[in-house]
């Protein structure tokens, strides 16, 4: 068994990335798959959603990306949940700046996840609301990308930018990255725009 890694990304905030990630992790774990949820957002919302206070973390995804801590020591099993979590907090912003000084910085997450590929069936990565180095790390490590998209006109403009980033990642970093699909979120049956 080797893990399938799915990055959930969209540079627009508030489209349902974290909700999608946490629910996918919980759903697959309920089917008895070994699951890891990676919180790669400095806001730490996936960690908070799993009952972890990001402000009380002593180690997080930051130290893992910088190679200061082994990922196995950093993963938590949140109380009452059936999946594991690599938590995050605001330190990830500092990690992103520090990574700029490193060679092969786009591969930091892929290197960190390598020892876990035989341990999990599914790894879901909750990306930050930007096309940053953290998001590029997620796309470089992932087999596929799931894009939550609000059912509104302006969301389509941002989709074009995201698809350009995917194209560049495929060209230089991860030629096997596939788009798993676009997940329409926040559908409002009262509006014609949502139906369109």
What do you see in this structure?
- The chain is an alpha/beta fold and 196 residues long.
- Helix content is 39%, strand content 17%.
- The chain has helices at residues 17-30, 45-49, 61-65, 71-74, 91-99, 108-113, 133-141, 153-172, 192-195; strands spanning 4-8, 35-39, 84-86, 122-126, 144-150, 178-185.
- It contains 9 helices and 6 strands; from the N terminus they run E-H-E-H-H-H-E-H-H-E-H-E-H-E-H.
- Helix 8 links the parallel strand 5 and strand 6 (178-185).
- It has a 6-stranded parallel beta sheet, with helices on both faces.
Quick structural summary:
By secondary structure, the protein is α/β, with parallel strands linked by helices.
**Main beta sheet strand tally, sense and closure:** 6 strands, parallel
- What portion of residues belong to β-strands? 15-25%
Uncertain segments: none
Shape: globular
- Helix/strand-derived class? alpha/beta
Strand order of the largest sheet: 3-2-4-1-5-6
**Share of helical residues:** 25-40%
Task: Give the averaged pLDDT, no decimals.
Answer: 90
The count of β-strands is: 6
Alpha carbon gap, first and last residue: 41 Å
Q: Please count the helical segments.
A: 9
Oligomerization state of this entry? single chain
Measured on Cα atoms, how large is the radius of gyration? Answer: 16 Å
Order of helices and strands: EHEHHHEHHEHEHEH
Topology summary:
Layout: E1 4-8, H1 17-30, E2 35-39, H2 45-49, H3 61-65, H4 71-74, E3 84-86, H5 91-99, H6 108-113, E4 122-126, H7 133-141, E5 144-150, H8 153-172, E6 178-185, H9 192-195
List keywords for this structure.
17% strand, alpha/beta, 196 residues, 6 strands
């Amino acid at each position: 068994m080797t893990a399938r890694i799915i990055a959930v990304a969209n540079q627009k905030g508030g489209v349902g990335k974290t909700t999608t990630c946490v629910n996918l992790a919980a759903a697959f774990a309920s089917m008895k798959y070994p699951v890891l949820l990676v919180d790669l957002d400095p806001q730490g919302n996936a960690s908070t959603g799993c009952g972890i206070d990001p402000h009380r973390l002593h180690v997080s995804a930051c130290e893992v990306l910088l190679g200061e801590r082994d990922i196995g020591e950093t993963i938590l099993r949140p109380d009452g949940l059936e999946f594991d979590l690599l938590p995050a907090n605001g330190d990830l912003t500092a990690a992103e700046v520090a990574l700029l000084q490193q060679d092969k910085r786009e591969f930091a997450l892929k290197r960190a996840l390598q020892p876990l590929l035989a341990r999990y069936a599914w790894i879901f990565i909750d990306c930050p609301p930007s096309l940053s180095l953290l998001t590029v790390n997620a796309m470089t490590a992932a087999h596929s990308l799931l894009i939550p998209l609000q059912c509104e006109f302006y969301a389509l403009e941002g989709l074009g930018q995201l698809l350009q980033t995917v194209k560049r990642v495929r060209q230089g970093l991860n030629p096997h990255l596939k788009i798993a699909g676009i997940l329409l979120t926040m559908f409002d049956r009262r509006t014609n725009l949502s139906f369109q």
